Amino acid sequence: MKYKCKDGTIVNLAPEVKPEYFYSLINLTTNAGVIIDLFKNRNYDVSVVPGSFLRILTASEKELSEIASVLDEIEKLGLRAIFNANLDARSFKSSFIARVKMGAEKGIPFVNADNTFINELKDEESFKAYTEAYLKNKTTTSNTEEAKELDAEDLTVKSTILSKLSEINSLNSDVTLTFIVSSIIANLDTAIANNNKAYRNLGCRPIIEGALKGVDLTSDMQELIDTKILAAFPDMNMERGI
Amino acid sequence: MKFLEKYGFEKKDIEALKENSTSTVLKELEAHKKLVSKNLDYLNNLGVTNLSEIFINYHDMFLMDNSNFEAIFNQYEPESLVEKLAKDVRIMEYL
How many contacts, defined by CB atoms under 8 Å, are there between A and B? Predict the structure, then answer.
């Protein structure tokens, strides 16, 4: 879905995004073109963006220079892939990168398994409490899990899955199904990366199943997954008549 | 952002909100605090247990016209909606 900002810049929103939720931001995106260039010039993939990215495009001139210096800091830390997967306004604030830097330096985990930032990074107080608790009960958990980047073939598969999920969700008024769709999308990149291109032979079904691993599923959810989600992603063996 | 205190927002919530927004959007929220409050009231009355978390992450949505805002949530069974929002706030994007 294309979204035209106030300065005429076109932003391509991810297919699962509902643009009507972001109409209030349209007249506030005064520096959109300049801001997008800041990301493009540092090799961020902003060809398709989440809805949260639109908030970044409302940054003022002053905030724009803060974003630029944070982007430079991210390059120095070698964390572009993780930040590219977290295109939220908070990710590009100097206070946030300071916490990430501290976490990286002290070996404190700051990324979830799905490459999103941990919730405790959202404010100083929460992160301080988390850091203290972590250092006190230091576990073997580490930051070694790097964001896995998807290649062009993976991204095509991702786009196909997202379109189908978006279609399923658009016809839906069951919040449990919405929860399932949201959980799949949240874990999709990791599930595709872990699939190691098995989708070439097995189709998208194992990716969907992989994305739901670790999600706390009730029996009514499992039924919805079978009837509404997996039914939309046919088993390759069934397709071949095996 | 003083008007948010009425909804139980703590200092750290306001800080988290400011960090997850821009000055332009924050000014807009302040300028339209009546509308924002109306939408907050609606979710509060619905019984959501993580109002500050929802607002910190999706405050732009609270600038929507109240009838459009309510229409998003009205299509779901309230009890189940409240439970799922508490479980994972990210479902907001897909409602």
Answer: 105
Helix (H) or strand (E) holding A10: strand A10-12
Q: How far is B42 from chain A (nearest CA, A)?
A: 17
ipTM of predicted assembly, 2 dp: 0.86
Chain B interface includes A120 (CB < 8 A): no
Report CB contact under 8 Å: A18, B93: yes
- What are the structural domain ranges in chain A? 2-104, 152-239
The Cα–Cα gap between A131 and A109 comes to: 9
A60 interfaces chain B, CB cutoff of 8 Å: yes
Cβ distance of A179 and B77 shorter than 8 Å: no
> Please, which residues bridge with residue A170 across strands?
none
- SS3 at position A12: strand
Prediction pTM value: 0.75
Contact (CB<8Å) B19/A93: yes
Q: Does B93 touch chain A (CB under 8 A)?
A: yes
State the 10-residue block means of pLDDT for chain B, 95 residues long. 92 91 95 97 96 94 94 92 91 86
Buried/exposed A95-117: b ≥16 CB within 10 Å, e otherwise: bbbebbbebeeeebbbbeebbbb
Count of all residues that appear for chain B in the document: 95
What is the tens place of the pLDDT at every residue in A165-219?
888 887 777 888 888 888 888 888 889 988 889 898 888 999 999 988 878 888 8
